[in-house]
Every structure is written in structure tokens, then in C-alpha cells.
Design goal:
The structure is a single chain. The chain is of the alpha/beta class. The chain has two domains: 123 residues, Response regulator (Rossmann fold, 3-Layer(aba) Sandwich), CATH 3.40.50; 104 residues, Winged helix-like DNA-binding domain superfamily/Winged helix DNA-binding domain (Arc Repressor Mutant, subunit A, Orthogonal Bundle). The protein is 36% helix and 20% strand. About 3% of the residues have low confidence. Strand 3, helix 1 and strand 4 form a beta-alpha-beta unit.
């Protein structure tokens, strides 16, 4: 599995040797470079030494640090996709993982092929930053000075500054912007963003909306862009200009 000729590198952070080996083996069978880490310290050391990590598979119960805390520190400086892999399958744990910025949540015991499918799905919908100079976006949307580039899957702010989005955040914003003015229920948004697996619930949308508002709203507590229609869902309520190739 490659991206622009470069091999995809996935950090597998889990203190259980057997789980780590299974995950690394199934990734390697697809040509993915698996980087095994038995602790948070191992991952942080890897991150310091490595030029690039394309995705993190993260256990929540590590011997030296809580996985939620490690995920939060990763997300504070990077939009690298995070798939949480854990035996803690309660709804509150999943919501906390989403609030921190995880892109997917897989509960142990897990099917190795399903995990691989999720890794591929996340990678297909995630594009890393490239060169410092790039031509203007050919396809996408402009709203209140923001530009959503749907080819490169990037969002820039009114000053041209990049606004890092996780895979789930980008997909949800794209769905809302593309349907500007339409009220969309949580179920509709789950279906549009292809997040209708058995372990995804409608509360997922609420969490992602909160995350997006913190990133794009002038005042997240009094939303201007993404408004709540109580009892119905959400609507993107500002003018949107569609970009197209010239």
C-alpha cells in the first residue's frame, strides 16, 4: 500500500505482544510498514526519530501512560489519523476518543481483516500536506473566507492558514457544505459520511460537530456556520461558493 510512491507507515502502539504481532503481520501482508511500539515512550521515541508516520493504531491501556492522554498529545500537533484499538467498548470511552480526535474506534477482540479494511478506508480519505507551493484548488467550496479543497482534502482559513482536520471532520464538513441550506438529520449525516458500522452511533455526529465548531466558528458557543435545528439535525447556514476547474 503506497501513497505517491511512498510506503505507508503505521505505528502499532499496544503493550500486548500477541496483539501487536497479529496487527503488524496483517499490515505487512498488504505491504504496509508496521512500526511496533510496546508503550507510549516507544511511540514518542519513534515519532522523534521518524520522518513520517501515516497512521497510528493505539491501545488505550498502556503501561506508562493512558492512551487517551497520548492521543490528545498527538492530536495537539498533528492531524495524523488515529484508530483506537481497545477492550474498553463503553459509549463514554468512544465519545471521549472522538472528542480527543480519533478517526475510528475498534473494540477487542477484533477481526484482523476488518481492522485492515478500516486502515485502508482511513488512508484512502486522508491526504498529507505536500509541497509549500501548490496551485489553487480546482474543486471545492469557499465560505466566509475559508476554502475547502475537495481534491486535496484540506481546509484553509480566511488568512490562508491551514486548518488541520481529521478524516471524520473533513467528511462531515464536506457533507454539510455540499448541502448548504438543507437540514440534515444525524442518521442522514452518518449515511452520507459512510460511518454506519455497528459501533458508530448518532452521538458521533454531535461530537464531530463540536470539534468542527471549535475549528471554524468565530464563536463556537454561538454558531454562525453550523446551526442546530432542534429535533431535526444540523444545517450549514452561510453562503457557499462552489469552485470548479477553469
Amino acid at each position: 500500500m503506497t501513497l505517491s510512491g511512498q510506503k505507508v507507515r503505521v505505528a502499532v502502539v499496544d503493550d500486548d505482544t500477541s496483539v501487536r504481532e497479529v496487527v503488524c503481520d496483517v499490515l505487512a501482508s498488504e505491504g504496509i510498514e508496521a512500526l511496533a511500539c510496546a508503550s507510549a515512550a516507544d511511540y514518542l521515541g519513534l515519532a522523534e526519530r521518524s520522518e513520517s508516520i501515516d497512521l497510528v493504531i493505539l491501545d488505550l491501556q498502556l503501561p506508562d501512560r493512558d492512551g487517551f492522554s497520548l492521543a490528545a498529545s498527538i492530536r495537539a500537533s498533528s492531524a495524523v489519523p488515529i484508530i483506537m484499538l481497545t477492550g474498553r467498548g463503553g459509549e463514554l470511552d468512544r465519545i471521549l476518543g472522538l472528542e480527543i480526535g480519533a478517526d475510528d474506534y475498534v473494540v477487542k477482540p477484533f477481526n484482523a481483516r476488518e481492522l485492515l479494511a478500516r486502515v485502508k478506508a482511513v488512508r484512502r480519505r486522508y491526504i498529507q500536506g505536500g509541497a509549500s507551493f501548490e496551485p489553487p484548488p480546482r474543486n471545492g467550496y469557499r465560505f466566509l473566507g475559508h476554502v475547502l479543497d475537495t481534491d486535496r482534502r484540506r481546509l484553509t482559513g480566511p488568512g490562508g492558514e491551514p486548518i488541520p482536520l481529521t478524516v471524520a471532520e473533513f467528511d462531515l464538513l464536506h457533507a454539510l457544505v455540499e448541502r448548504q441550506g438543507r437540514v440534515l438529520s444525524r442518521d442522514q449525516l452518518l449515511e452520507i459520511t459512510h460511518r454506519t458500522t455497528d459501533d458508530i452511533f448518532d452521538r458521533t455526529i454531535d461530537v464531530l460537530i463540536l470539534r468542527l465548531r471549535r475549528k471554524i466558528e468565530p464563536n463556537p458557543t454561538n454558531p454562525l456556520l453550523i446551526k442546530t435545528e432542534r429535533g431535526h439535525g444540523y444545517v450549514f447556514d452561510v453562503r457557499v461558493e462552489k469552485l470548479s476547474p477553469h
